[in-house]
Amino acid sequence: MSSLTDLLFSEDEDDHLLLMKRLRTIVRGELHERNLFHAPPGRLGYSGPTWVDNDTLADLVGDAYEFNFRRRAALDAQRRHKKNVDGLIRLNVKHFITDQQAKFDPLGFSVYQNAIGGIERAMESKVLRTDAAEAQLDGHTLLKYGTWNQHSAPADAARMRDALLSQRGVGDLKELATICQDAQIQIEVRITRLPQSDSSIEGFHCRDLVEPLKIEVRAAHHAGAVVGAGTVVQQPDEDATDYVQVSQAEDPGLLVVRALGRTVDAADLPATMKTHLKNLIDDLDQHPESTSAERARRLAVPPQRMSEWMSLLGQLLGGAQ
């Protein structure tokens, strides 16, 4: 089988088609490793419905190919000192996807970077360990506490989320949206306290720490944007089945919309008002940048009424904290 290096530097068009096919496998692997395959393509700057859509995935693969093609001169210089540069071609794919995520999903990217930093701190302090074969942390890395033994099993995302949400006095989750040392220290503390929050947790996969944190931080920012600057609404608990389904197959933004809808359902309000407020929540989710006047036009209500609804929604959500 031809190497990635041979295919990239070939003058044969068929070889470049074969390279695209090989890159497709690499790109899919990266998406799965980062838990992005079931996330909206918009997180990487693409407009297709899902990554299952062949055209959407082909666009990402084509851009990853172009990213490598533009770097052929630099790769060629490295090729003079190596048998091949297959590893660098794969690394370029990683860098390209990382760049796209940092640009189009800065919140998720920041949470991930802070989580990795927090895990590394926990490993340095001997709270966590990995198998000796683990050279680099990724979504599949199994992290073990000192209690890990031959009968242990990694905690799943739902158990991790429940344990994380039960922690008090650890810090503001919104802090994780900015890459900084304080955020990484917060995650280190959360990791250290996880077995105290749930004694059955003896280890976990990296992704099952990162994904619940991403969902909760997105929920905090989304709710904060609805109520107003500096206000965060605590998201009600979901059962494990619903959580896993959302984290694997749906935009996590849907989770907080459902949570806000339940807050309205529980309020002592006429049914018609509940319907109005739910429509408002949906509009806030779909058009977060809109002005109040634009929102009033879409919902076909007078601007004054829109102000009253926004105020009422703020009061309800503020009381849910």
Write the layout of secondary structure elements.
Blueprint lengths: L3 H5 L4 H21 L20 H16 L2 H8 L6 H19 L1 H19 L17 E3 L12 H9 L15 H17 L5 E3 H22 L12 H10 L3 H14 L4 H16 L5 H8 L3 H17 L2
Antiparallel strand pairs: 1-2
Short overview:
It is built from 14 helices and two strands.
Keywords:
Arc Repressor Mutant, subunit A; 3 domains; 14 helices
Describe the protein:
By secondary structure, this protein is mainly alpha-helical. It folds into 3 domains: 4-104, no CATH class; 108-257, no CATH class; 267-319, Arc Repressor Mutant, subunit A, CATH 1.10.10. It is built from 14 helices and 2 strands; from the N terminus they run H-H-H-H-H-H-E-H-H-E-H-H-H-H-H-H. Strands 1-2 form a two-stranded antiparallel sheet. Helix 2 packs across helix 5 and helix 3 crosses helix 5.
Strand order of the largest sheet: 1-2
SSE string, helix = H, strand = E?
HHHHHHEHHEHHHHHH
Strand residues, percent: under 5%
List the total number of helices: 14
Termini separation (Å)?
59 Å
Give the radius of gyration.
23 Å
Reported for the largest beta sheet, the result is: 2 strands, antiparallel
The secondary structure category is mainly alpha
State the domain count: 3
Q: State the shape.
A: flat
Helix content: 55-70%
- Uncertain spans: 225-256
Give the averaged pLDDT, no decimals.
81
